[in-house]
Design a protein that fits this description.
- The structure is a homotetramer.
- The first copy, chain A, has about 325 residues and is α/β, with parallel strands linked by helices.
- The first copy, chain A, has helices at about 40-45, 95-100, 140-145, 145-160, 175-185, 200-205, 235-245, 265-270, 285-295, 315-320, and strands at about 1-5, 10-15, 25-35, 50, 50-55, 60, 65-70, 85, 90, 110, 125-130, 130-135, 165-170, 190-195, 210-215, 225-230, 245-255, 260-265, 275-280, 305-310, 330.
- In chain A, helix 4 (about 145-160) crosses helix 5 and helix 4 crosses helix 9 (about 285-295).
- Chains in contact: A-B, A-C, A-D, B-C, B-D, C-D.
Chain lengths: ~325, ~325, ~325, ~325
């Protein structure tokens, strides 16, 4: 099969590799669609994210869908032919974190497209049975791939405890920020205020659930917003700070955007209002909710797709994803 | 009656004032013991705490016990003679925060010894019926007063979700830090590590529940502590930072100590471990728990008392409280 | 003013009464619309509900809206002219339940239309400031009144922990059951199965959010439903039993419907699946959510109204409400 | 090795069997102590529990400790020699329940001493690495075995949300009831009322944490107890009913005792007090807490042991366990 690999010198190449063989508890998936994530772009541009360094050829891509074409010995063969969305993680099955229902925090997690674990910019991948989630026909291949970023949003919105009537501030209107606005609306939030510096993205936010947008470079509002929750999808220190100050007493801030090393927070405000500041690391137990939202809950993930690319065009897909005008590039490893 | 007042020029004076008359839903309490809190010392030394300025004579003291000697029209007269611990707050009864069970966050709260509301360094005070908590005979007058700082600890330990088997790091071994160590032990924590710069206080910590102490000015431990919870009772930025880094995945930091304006937090650590950072503002619904802990739960509050003072000695009590060797000064307004 | 009173002999009469004068913390409301509840019908037909006996003239009606026309001394006069929905309860302000955020469980609660407390089938009523909830213009007078049964549904759906993707079984398709189906949909439930014996009501259920209906007199389904939650709005023992058996492991049953004295529950099923069985008693802190749902959340309460009645027609309104074809009768005390 | 097996005709026999070989992720344990549980007695006396029938030779015993003497290929050999307490369950590693943190509810669970899965009345057993919990030297072999019934108590006490100051009613003073009383005390409960018909057991309860006992065959108390929580360890319908009626508003009932098929509960009381009725099925994520309680938290499990038996004496152990005077029989499969 063909795989697109990122080399340590940050060039991309097509490699011929053997089709992987599923383990006992795994399925083999012929990959349909793979969304390009900011982390893929970061590995491509910088060759590393924090301690994770691309020092050997690495297949990028972790937002993937496909069709099951073979199964391991402990998986029912009736699954062959199923259209699935891939949850791209392999936690230790019986680690303390996993048994406690927080498998995303397992210290020995092996995650797609994170050195040295390959991702999905290739024709076939294997994944454990339990992490190949069947999708209904109402969810397209692209949408099935984008259940991954939707899961990021679901994990954050759950921690933010949004529900009918909630008021939320979201910082950042990139693909994750937009997925969060859509998700907030699906959870019943009635005020969804998106703060974003780029005018085009502010405009897009209105199409994806925002009830109002803020240009954070303009003046601060005279009166605090008093929102129930703040979700950061920007990673920008001033945005995080403003967002926390906008919270009502007992409000919750969920920090998802990466970037700032340090964030300086006003201690007395956290105390006097008994605010809760937390973050999310990927997701756990989100796929069924994401599938419901995408099939019945009114979240049209296809609208996030900006353009499609073949396996030979992964570099173009990554370059496009780096431009602010793009919402989501999608690679189709088996297209010609 | 006699009252000790702090004047705007930061001197103390005894004033003769009329005994207050309880409102319909209030009781009149003859004050027995009043603990001296760090905030009393701060008002005395600085004339203000944040936006709260002593610009008129103010009675300090908010850790108080006494005996009910009169009741308002809607309070049963059978309460006269009861020994009580005073919960020194008056929230708006039907505010949104109060109805939601968070009366401590009511924006119109009137709290003892917070300008312009007088405290308990006087012979008599009034308080609403519901906030004069009956104490059993096994709780002394001093201990009944110190249920207030114990309530601060209970509120923090609850947010930290301590229970049997928990491992907790507490920063600061002043009276609040010690109350937290005692409370953590009563909640079943099996490792209670107290970080404190002052050697005498580290020594005291061992007497009040700590299973280990750390000198934060010494070297960092080679391996992270991986505690379930961190409670800050120091208000010191480096302590808060170290405490947060010591948390296990999904751990909780509760920031109680005041002081630092800004705290710089490591964003990636909060995200990757899904930590929760929060604070407490005083307390709500803690007194019954505090009474249980002090009467049956093995917390001997009397051991915190360093010395007693009369109303004429409030200045000495405040000066003593400012010295690190003192744990808790107690004023007895009706002693001679 | 004119009031419709239920006499101990279960006849209704119009009485002339003085307009009530608001207490310091109350408002006077000119009543617009009052929904007829099953409990009103029960008092009318039986003269009692459990220990509450109509042994003196009683004004029925507790689902009420109106316009503030006067205020007590501690309420801002700017509220005069506001259109409001009435939360018809008066808890003790500082009871233990109230301070804990469960004011609906206050043992000294005084609730509209519950002997000896009068309700809203009269031209004017008083209510505490905090329980007269301002409604926007997008909510009609009738809908403002029906925020009360909607609050019953919100309280139940919260306890059932419904959210996007949830699967719920609701027993009973009377006005409360229908409000629950609407609310479940607004909370994101994707399967809303309504069990109801009356065919007309099953039909109505489809108009109010049900994705499927069941005739419980027909055969049991071969395979259990495995729903996340069961909400009973029927009070019928067989319905409760079937509903509990339909739950998935760790599922929740919320029992709202009154009627059965005893319910026989299968102990081993509750244990083996770790089910949670609970009930709701009215509501607390629901109005803002209900207002959001009715104004922005897609719940059209006006569709529940079957017919309008004047104060002289309260008997007709009660008789109509007792018939299965009626969803909701509305009394307009100030109409002519 | 030697194994004690229960035959379908309900006789016991010693069989010679090959020592089991640990799978990749398992350890081999030389068994030290095995407590006799009521379920072992039930299989011995009745040949079945519900749908689980002893229709082939079955090794009983699921409260077990021992020493690791061999490990599978994926387990570090450094574990050999460790003294361990066995958590006697094998859930599917990636089932929906397991990933959600509720592995005890996994429908494909294989549990010790439950047909057709063998238990620990044999010289050696295998168990997955993660379920062989290392114990410190302060915990004896017997106590390490009894961490299993202690885990049952921990699971129940957690659901009952006991903490400092709690008031709890426990029905039944058999070994589980006593473990619950001990656990409730360790969690800080200040009133622990044990209801038990047998006078000797009521007496024992006082030795194991009860602050009061009730003879349920005597008259009902005049005023309701108004406890925060009720835990049933009796399985007796009248006890469950009385326990639920004893709850304060918003109280919790946790039903652990097996026996009654149906329990008739008062619907209006559940609703008017918003009670929560639930059950526990074994335990999940309890062992670390149980180890803490047994080593540092003051629970002396050795005091529960009534007598020891060899593998040849399993029948005597089971007969003794069936007598009310016995608290806990312990089998030592490797003793001579």
């Amino acid at each position: 099969m063909r795989a697109s690999v990122l080399l340590p010198d940050r060039t991309l190449a097509i490699e011929e590799r053997p089709v992987p063989i599923p383990e006992d508890d795994e399925v083999l998936v012929r990959v349909s669609s793979v969304g390009v994530c900011g982390s893929d772009v970061h590995y491509y541009k910088e060759g590393r994210i924090g301690d994770f360094v691309v020092d050997a050829p690495l297949v990028l891509g972790h937002e993937a869908s496909g069709t099951i074409c073979a199964v391991g010995s402990r998986v029912p063969s009736s699954r062959i032919g199923e259209r699935v969305s891939i949850e791209p993680q392999r936690p230790s099955p019986l680690s303390q974190s996993t048994l406690a229902g927080r498998y995303n925090l397992d210290p020995n997690m092996r995650f797609f497209a994170t050195p040295p674990v390959d991702g999905a910019f290739q024709e076939y991948v294997t994944i454990q049975d339990a992490f190949a989630h069947r999708v209904p026909d109402t969810i397209s291949d692209d949408a099935a791939a984008l259940l991954e970023p939707l899961s990021v949003a679901v994990a954050a919105v759950r921690k933010a405890a949004l529900g009918p009537g909630s008021r939320v501030l979201i910082a950042g209107a990139g693909p994750i920020g937009l997925a969060m606005a859509l998700t907030a609306r699906a959870y019943g939030a009635v005020e969804i205020i998106v703060a974003e510096v780029d005018e085009r993205r502010r405009h897009a936010a209105h199409d994806f659930g925002a009830t109002a947008t803020i240009d954070p470079t303009a003046e601060e509002p005279a009166t605090p917003l008093q929102v129930d929750a703040f979700i950061d999808a920007s990673g920008a220190t001033p945005a995080i700070r403003s967002g926390i100050l906008a919270l009502r007493p007992a409000g919750v801030a969920v920090l998802v955007g990466m970037g700032a090393r340090e964030i300086a927070l006003p201690l007395a405000v956290i105390q006097n209002r008994e605010l809760v500041i937390t973050g999310t690391f990927r997701y756990a137990n989100t796929w069924q909710t994401a599938i419901s939202l995408a099939s019945a809950g009114g979240i049209e993930l296809d609208r996030l797709v900006s353009a499609h690319y073949s396996l030979d065009q992964v570099q173009e897909a990554l370059e496009a994803a780096a431009r602010p005008g793009t919402i989501k590039s999608v690679v189709q490893p088996n297209s010609v």
